[in-house]
Amino acid sequence: MAIWIPSLAERQGTRASALVDAIREDIAAGLLKAGDRLPPQRQLADALGLAPQTVMRAYAEATRRGYVRGEVGRGTYVCPSGNQVSQHGEATLSRSEQGPIDFSQNLPLPGESAQALVETLADLARAGGCSDYLDHQQTDAGLRHRQAAANWISTLGLRADAQNVVLTNGAQQGIFAALLALLRPGDVLLTEAMTYAPLPMLAQHLGVRLVGLPMDEEGIVPDALESACRQYKPKALYLTPTLQTPTTATMGEDRRKRIACAAQTHDLVIVEDDVFGFLPPARPLPLAAFASERTIFVTSLSKSVAPGLRVGFVLAPNERISAVRSAVNLSSWMPPPLMMEIAARWIEGGVASALNASQRVHAARRQSIARNALEGLDYRADPHGLHLWVSLPDHWEADTFVAEAEHKGVLLRPARAFLTLGTRAPSAVRLSLSHEASDARAAHGLRVISDLIKTSARDDFVV
């Protein structure tokens, strides 16, 4: 056959993914047949104007999917079964085993959720009525889903009623809805000095003033909260009391009681972000347990069960539930019924609990790998958490360190990414352990970070 040179000009996505799609589609169309040899990587890269590494990644992904096979010393060939590839290809969002080691995204592993999804979808197909999951749900159609959410939240020790639950497309929508329901332009919102990265932008869009509070090893300092309440007369407090990101801090029960007491004294509404709350096997009660009538509690399944299960739950007191529900409806009329049905079935059948337990095992294993690789360094961690907070020595500035780490093939997030406006960023980085699918890649990346911390910044690498 003539040398195969596909056209990538009109294709979406990265050039590597576009090349994989071209291989798949040309096999399906019969333009590439079993046994056909693909061009050498460098030759194809030159023809398409791509970097050789891009073609290498595409060939590796096509090999993983079973479209082609590589033979040492001979080249890359279309597999015998390749011409049976579906025109639609496979649904794959698999995390790459190529390219930079990514410690920048705080996502859990999919784990065993794929097999659970296969079984659940098969059950739904056998049960019939699939058209219901593609329809517009009526007002009370999600009651069973809300009841499942209430049952899930109740395992944390909270009293949760389905009538006080709002379903969302993940925790971020729930947080935004809570703030939208509580705040008006010009209001003051308190939070941690180092906080959830999107929060400053959310505050800016809402026209509210965001004030960061000093923190210690348990999170925000109660005396600082009291002082800020007297000075700013805030309307709300947003915080993550369990496995706070980026610092990993978890408040003890006494600290939570003091925060709840301050909220009561100063008529402050709390937005409690508990997305990591299901990871520790033993943890203090949520803040909402100590201030139920003035706390909007937000959680999701994406950090504790499966990252792609974009299902969030908001538990709000009676006087706030209507406003929160209306705020959610401003950004989406309803969460996808199919996604909610999967979540409800997993909660009801114990699958969610089993997957949550699997995430705990995975997190503990990665934390053990980190302890070995970072021994002797200054960092904070929780044995059940998904991330680390690494303090840098005086000779490193965080942005420079992140840039140098990227140069060495490891992606991180600097303290600046979590900074509340008006506060000073410490010389530290957040390192997320669970995004990488391979323990070996995670361990290698940790060793790179450890070695880099112990060296001095290059004179020619200043950000």
UniProtKB/TrEMBL annotation:
One of its GO terms (molecular function) is DNA binding. Keywords: DNA-binding, Pyridoxal phosphate, Transcription, Transcription regulation. CDD domains: AAT_like (cd00609), WHTH_GntR (cd07377). SMART domains: HTH_GNTR. Residues 13-81 form the HTH gntR-type domain. InterPro entries: Aminotransferase_I/II_large, HTH_trans_reg/aminotransferase, PyrdxlP-dep_Trfase, PyrdxlP-dep_Trfase_major, PyrdxlP-dep_Trfase_small, Tscrpt_reg_HTH_GntR, WH-like_DNA-bd_sf, WH_DNA-bd_sf. In the C-terminal section; belongs to the class-I pyridoxal-phosphate-dependent aminotransferase family. PANTHER family: HTH-TYPE TRANSCRIPTIONAL REGULATORY PROTEIN GABR. This is GntR family transcriptional regulator. It comes from Sphingomonas oleivorans. The lineage of its organism: Bacteria, Pseudomonadati, Pseudomonadota, Alphaproteobacteria, Sphingomonadales.
